[in-house]
Inverse folding.
């Protein structure tokens, strides 16, 4: 009988050596879980090729099953870091010429007045000046003049990826990352599986597992806490696993460095969708005590993957809550999480 592989290549390489000093982090995440009324949470921390923290709490709300290592949360906008890597791959393979190439060079059927001046760089850093209203693109600012977090740029990026490759995001990321590294707890889901955790809502809506197509375009990417940490680890180590370079190092030099237009000094800073903070921007999602060169990606369910190169570390936290209760300050919470992680790893 053929043995079915249950762990990926990163999991096979890193050792487990849990430490008690992370107990305050678990306590904090549990306190926030109770505050926001999330039914499930998880923490996974890797430092110096060791899993130093793994913690689960709560239940899957539909089956009332306890959260475990293979439990998979919907990571929503955190999926953009995967899409960003696909863009990096296409740039490296010269299927996209360069970051500052105009979108209109790839999408001839778009309204020229709306898309004029917008580049790939603008799309990956939320600086395109577009928004969607009733599924229609609206221009509200000149490209490179304002930062705004919405799905308009992503919709154009999807079209460009399909135009230049003939493949969707899921197919590309599977070919280059998921299959070679043997990720088994990451995927855009179309049907219900026991490992998937339903979201709970601040509204009166019943708990739900969000399912959609598997193109990689939709908000149905489910990932376990450990495999999201492995994703962070892949980026932290710039494509190197146990001394083997599985993806080019310079690919990650590109995607995890600041790409926001240089003239936009006092605003959010992004790599290829990764959030960064090298300008001490007051509304940054990274905590004040998080070391320079760190980066993170966030999702609407409360998940985060924080990468701290200075400490050779990745910290992941997961929730399954959509919507915030009165009195809960999300920005302050995510900053507090990063600050606490940094203080415990230093």
């Amino acid at each position: 009988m053929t043995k079915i592989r249950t762990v990926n290549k990163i999991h096979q390489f890193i050792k487990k050596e849990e430490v008690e000093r992370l107990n305050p982090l678990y306590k904090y995440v549990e306190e926030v879980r109770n505050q926001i009324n999330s039914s499930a949470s998880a923490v996974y921390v890797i430092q110096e090729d060791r899993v130093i923290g793994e913690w689960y709490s709560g239940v899957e709300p539909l089956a009332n099953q306890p959260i475990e290592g293979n439990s998979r949360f919907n990571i929503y906008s955190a999926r953009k870091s995967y899409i960003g890597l696909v863009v990096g791959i296409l740039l490296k393979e010269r299927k996209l010429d360069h970051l500052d190439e105009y979108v209109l060079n790839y999408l001839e059927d778009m309204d020229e007045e709306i898309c004029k001046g917008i580049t790939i760089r603008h799309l990956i850093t939320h600086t395109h000046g577009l928004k969607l209203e009733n599924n229609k693109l609206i221009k509200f600012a000149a490209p490179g003049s304002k930062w705004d977090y919405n799905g308009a740029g992503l919709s154009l990026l999807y079209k460009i990826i399909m135009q230049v490759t003939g493949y969707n995001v899921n197919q590309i990321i599977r070919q280059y990352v998921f299959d070679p590294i043997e990720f088994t707890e990451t995927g855009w889901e179309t049907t219900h599986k026991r490992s998937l955790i339903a979201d709970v809502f601040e509204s009166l809506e019943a708990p739900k597992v969000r399912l959609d197509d598997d193109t990689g375009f939709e908000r149905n990417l489910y990932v376990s806490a450990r495999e999201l940490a492995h994703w962070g680890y892949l980026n932290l180590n710039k494509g190197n696993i146990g001394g083997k370079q599985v993806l080019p190092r310079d690919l990650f030099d590109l995607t995890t460095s600041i790409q926001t237009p240089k003239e936009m000094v006092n605003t959010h800073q992004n790599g290829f969708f990764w959030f960064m903070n090298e300008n001490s921007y007051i509304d940054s999602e990274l905590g004040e005590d998080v070391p320079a060169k760190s980066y993170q990606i966030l999702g609407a369910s409360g998940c985060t993957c924080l990468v701290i190169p200075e400490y050779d570390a990745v910290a992941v936290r997961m929730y399954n809550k959509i919507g915030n209760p009165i009195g809960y300050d999300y920005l302050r919470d995510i900053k507090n999480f990063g600050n606490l992680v940094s203080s415990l790893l230093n």
